[in-house]
Amino acid sequence: MKATIVTLPGDGIGPEVMVQALRVLEKIGETYGHKFETVEALIGGAAIDATGSALPDETIQACEGADAVLLAAVGGPKWSDPTSPVRPEQGLLKIRQHFGLFANLRPVKVYPALVDHAPLRRDLLDNVDILFVRELTGGAYFGKRKEMGDDDDAYDTLYYTKAEVERVAHVAFRAAQGRRGKMTSVDKANVLASMRLWRSTVLKVYEDYADVELEHLLVDACTMHLLTRPRDFDVILAGNMFGDILSDEASVLAGSLGMLPSASIGADTFGLYEPVHGSAPDIAGQGKANPIGMFLSLAMLLRYSLNLEDEAKAIETAIDAVLADGLRTADIASKGDNVSGTLEFADAVLAKL
């Protein structure tokens, strides 16, 4: 196979974990006989410094000619002023909207080797394996808004159409069909009109999926159940803001935000893949970053955009084996563990591959 992948290292620890992910990609290409062409482009704070835009036109053009995009992280203290007219996160919102990437897939898996590192009891964590499906191009992040200016008010509109809810609900139901057959839809239908539309639309889509068990949960109840009965969940569908918050909360189940990958997909095979973690400026340049989320994001790219299931599983199996051997980065280490840096952990994954 030949494929073109645009890489967006971004800011903070982004370039560090991206370098290691490209080593893994090269190894996969050599082992399985694929030719991967990578094209590096700018996004986030690095793009603002170089061009004045968080997502330059040159980056969009490069992505338009690619099979998939691999992104590391954006943001940092240098660009953290919330009143600034240009901010790193604008690049993320723009690229998602430009390419119609309306569904964000965020798997949360508890590794047996790390079960004692998480802050919950072991008996709550056994066999936890959740897939969050987050609506990505609607809701309060994209609704009509008013910025704070000289006035005393500001607002962001939580707005959804039936069509927006329908297309992401289909993604979630189909995912549940390929897993354990249960889907939980999260809303705030007892208070918000937009969420009553959400629930009624999900119920209508459900008519096409008789083989899936559907559960509705209010978002405040879901935050509690994620920590008291996490193994009961299979696929969780949520709107843009609720999905963002809930999937980050669920990172504690895996032991660290650095463990989690994500895929942003649309109506075809093109997708944007990125770890859930941020740019971690406090450890940038120190070689301490956990590359697992980046590696697993690469695995999702191979699976969803390039249809390379064996290659994706090879990366995931290698990570499982390294963790089982006892190697840990600092964020997932307990007292007495063998703590490694980014490079050492990547070397171990490559050795397993």
Architecture overview:
The chain is built from 13 helices and 14 strands. It is α/β, with parallel strands linked by helices and 353 residues long. Helices cover 41% and strands 20% of the residues. A ten-stranded mixed sheet has the order 2-1-3-12-11-4-5-10-8-9, sandwiched between helices. Strands 6-7 form a two-stranded antiparallel ribbon. The protein has a two-stranded parallel sheet with strand order 13-14. The mean pLDDT is 95. It folds into two domains: 1-100 and 260-353, Isopropylmalate Dehydrogenase (3-Layer(aba) Sandwich), CATH 3.40.718.10; 118-138 and 164-254, Rossmann fold (3-Layer(aba) Sandwich). The two termini are 19 Å apart.
Q: SSE layout and pairings?
A:
Blueprint lengths: L1 E9 L3 H19 L2 E6 L3 H8 L5 H8 L3 E6 L14 H11 L4 E7 L12 H4 L3 E7 L9 E2 L8 E2 L5 H16 L4 E6 L5 H14 L6 E6 H10 L6 E4 L1 H10 L1 H4 L6 E5 L5 E5 L16 H13 L4 H16 L2 E2 L9 E2 L2 H11 L1
Parallel strand pairs: 1-2, 1-3, 3-12, 5-10, 8-9, 8-10, 13-14
Antiparallel strand pairs: 4-5, 4-11, 6-7, 11-12
Helix pairs in contact: 1-13, 2-4, 6-7, 11-12, 12-13
Taking the alpha carbons of the first and last residues, their distance comes to 19 Å
CATH fold-level assignment of the largest domain: Isopropylmalate Dehydrogenase
Cα gyration radius (Å): 20 Å
Question: Count of helical segments?
Answer: 13
- Estimate the mean pLDDT confidence: 95
